[in-house]
Specification:
Shape: globular
Distance between the termini: 26 Å
Number of strands: 5
Structural class: alpha/beta
Largest sheet: 5 strands, parallel
Radius of gyration: 12 Å
Oligomer: single chain
Amino acid sequence: MKRIGVGIIGASPERGWAVWAHIPALRALPQYEIRAVSTSRRESAEAAQRIFQVDAYDNPEDLIRHNGVDLVVVCVKVPNHYPLVLAALDAGKMVYCE
């Protein structure tokens, strides 16, 4: 089975839905593989990389360009949804926006 590579924008390990809901759920489903996360700060991106053991970025555009990411999960504040969803769709990625 080919796994769907997932990138999560808004995966700060300190807080948020991604840590408490999306990451555990996706890790429990064999058809998905979390391959990258993005946060808004370099420090939290580095912490996320250590904790989740995946590529991590402090720029969502870098996550969207990641070749291993097929599905972009957008878990940020609502005012930021539209530009991130649009960028992911423009890059040919599937999108899940909470």
